[in-house]
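Worked example

This section walks through a single chain of length 107. The input is the sequence exactly as stored; nothing has been trimmed or padded.
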Amino acid sequence: MLDDLLILIGRFHPLIIHLPIGFIVLGILIELNSKKLKWSDDALEFIFFWASLTGLFALVSGFLQYNKEGYLWDSIQGHLIAGIATVILSFTFYLHLKEKSFFKFLG
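Given that input, the structure is written out below as tokens.
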């Protein structure tokens, strides 16, 4: 039963992977127009938090897909590294924005 659930979650990877990609693209578009948008820092903080969280879900579902579907390690290694790098960069940018907004309130 649990094994079937893990297989199902793994098969949702192609759907789940598009969530962080969409958040990141949205964040880039807002950043490109940040001079026109006074609320851009708050929105970017929200967007990159969700990009990080959904990126973690995508990593887990991708790992389950790899583990349960019988993919070869050589075929997914670069894909996994790119996913981990994306989550780390998204979370780093979120922390950077969080720090900016935190110091805004102190100053």
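What to look for: The helical segments are 2-11, 13-16, 18-32, 40-69, 73-106.
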